[in-house]
Design goal:
Layout: H1 2-42, H2 50-72, H3 75-85, H4 95-120, H5 124-132, H6 137-167, H7 179-190, H8 193-222
Helix pairs in contact: 1-4, 1-7, 1-8, 2-4, 3-4, 4-6, 5-6, 6-8, 7-8
């Protein structure tokens, strides 16, 4: 048993470094951009030109449908549609690209609700006060609202990031050679599925624990200027 652990663990770790971590980082980065854009569009309404307002309304409707669609369907089904289904209509991606696209869109849908809620939590009085001294919408957003909203959104966004690390195990279903698939391949050779799946579970736990510690310090850093008042 110990020989199996010693021989298999480095191989699983290498799969994590080569595929799981890049898949997670790239997908979350793209998903976060999608989430911010989606949240900003859904929380703002342009004034003035009625044509622009109408087009903006259609865009908000489309983004609301996008969020509903990806939050209402299983991630595994989404992976299968992108990788196995789209080639039937002439749209084909390699496994890694299909994983990036699916995880990014799924993450963007969930995180957009987090960002939208964080932006909405900022009192309207702060917007009004900033406008009263001549600040533009962009200045208010990036200098006042967004820094506060990011601090509010950080814990749930961190949870989404950690959840994405574990969700990448589903990428094995579309032939991406990440940690879980490597453990499956080794288990098929040594006929010790309990041991192999336990090893990969421990590796996932190590990755997620490191991220949880990083989240703790990042939250402290983001809250360094927040005064805590006693009761």
């Amino acid at each position: 048993m110990w020989n199996t652990i010693v021989n298999s663990t480095p191989e699983i770790f290498w799969a994590g470094i080569k595929f799981t971590i890049p898949l997670t980082l790239i997908s979350f980065a793209i998903g976060f951009v999608i989430a911010v854009v989606t949240a900003l569009v859904r929380t703002s309404t342009p004034k003035g030109n009625p044509v622009v307002a109408g087009l903006w309304g259609l865009l908000k409707l489309f983004l609301s449908f996008y969020v509903w669609l990806f939050r209402s369907t299983p991630l595994l089904v989404q992976l299968f549609i992108v990788f196995f289904g789209l080639p039937n209509i002439g749209i084909q991606f390699d496994a890694f690209s299909a994983g990036i696209i699916t995880f990014s869109l799924n993450t963007g849908a969930y995180c957009s609700e987090t960002v939208r809620g964080a932006i909405s939590s900022i009192p309207d009085s702060q917007w009004e006060a900033a406008y009263s001294i001549g600040m533009t919408y962009r200045q208010v957003l990036f200098r006042i609202v967004f820094p506060q909203a990011l601090r509010v959104a950080l814990p749930p966004l961190s949870n989404s990031f950690i959840g994405l690390v574990k969700d990448t195990s589903l990428a094995s279903s579309i032939t991406i050679l990440e940690m879980f698939m490597v453990s499956q391949q080794i288990a098929a050779k040594n006929y010790e599925p309990l041991l192999m799946y336990s090893i990969v579970a421990v590796v996932y736990a190590v990755f997620c624990t490191v991220l949880s510690v990083a989240q703790h310090y990042l939250e402290r850093y983001m809250s360094r200027y927040v005064q805590v008042t006693g009761e």
